[in-house]
């Protein structure tokens, strides 16, 4: 009989790196070119000038498997470089916008503005919760604010504790607000802008429908946070992070030490507002696309940094740091586009779309739209980058939506909601993991608290996707 009393250590499963997952998909696509029947649809131009699939034109073609390596032809490994080239406009758009917003943030205007707001509402009790939810919701909906929220977490927690709440409330009024905006995506350049570009839709079209979604998500967040906040204030013992509150009772941030809000900061905000007004006008009246939007964001960053007092060297450093923060997502877009390169070379992408359409069409268009939504929810666990997920899935979902009778706007909506909502809970999200790290809230406690809310939003999202299909949102 063995006397070994050492417990057997079992390795916990870890989700592979996003790049590993995408490379695995590229490899599966490569293998698929050898085993899947090749086929193609004819593409035609519709009355709106978009390239669409002719539903009755699918034909089988000779098998054309992609080569593993070749000295003279495109092959598996060259697909990544080609994918980068094919997605270069999106990649550079992400980097420029990220750099520009870092230049704006580098002026200190955003931090000082939030600080002034926080101090102004400190004595107004529960007013702080809806206001903070809305402010960060607007940020998520217009500039795709996600990782940027991390720096505000200490302020949110300090405010919440000063008002008799706990760290959960401080984190929630920032992250749930930003998530509602990011998911609703009224003018989110990294999700809606990229997806609509791939779908050949006018940039930010269908915005009013997304405004309604944003409003509903904000209301849901407000009710969920306020319900919990009132309970915690009435009885601190029921806090979901009671142990943390006891341990951190002496670690209170002095709100008076926040950056002062100056006249320069006001001018920075005016510059940003003018920029967004120009963007709305350009998109609506002049059909602006990614190139024009990139140039506008760059102008906003440059002028804001000049007005805000940043030196040219500091503004340049801010730009580089901002672009650096988004290099992960930008590269995901290019690497993910390699999937499309392989499938297109092997002429199996249309075969996949044909098979999916044949299976889904028997259930009706609304079920088809909800199927798209479900696929995006699942994929978000593995490809948490919004723009990367758009680059991976929209080239397949767009022709699929054409074939089964779902509008392209609904396909984009299914993507943005499927991508955004679960970012609050998935362990592959760098943003939420950063938030809980800086807040010191254990991941399992955060999941237990926020899971019901995520479930509610997923159901609401399903309703909006179904309604979008029923009304024929365009």
TrEMBL record:
This is C4-dicarboxylate anaerobic carrier. The chain crosses the membrane at residues 17-36, 90-114, 126-146, 167-187, 207-226, 266-283, 289-307, 319-340, 352-374, 381-400, 420-438, 450-471. Its main location: membrane. It is a multi-pass membrane protein. PANTHER family: BASIC AMINO ACID ANTIPORTER YFCC-RELATED. Keywords: Cell membrane, Membrane, Transmembrane, Transmembrane helix. It comes from Alkaliphilus metalliredigens (strain QYMF). It is found in: Cell membrane. One of its GO terms (cellular component) is plasma membrane. It comes from the Bacteria.
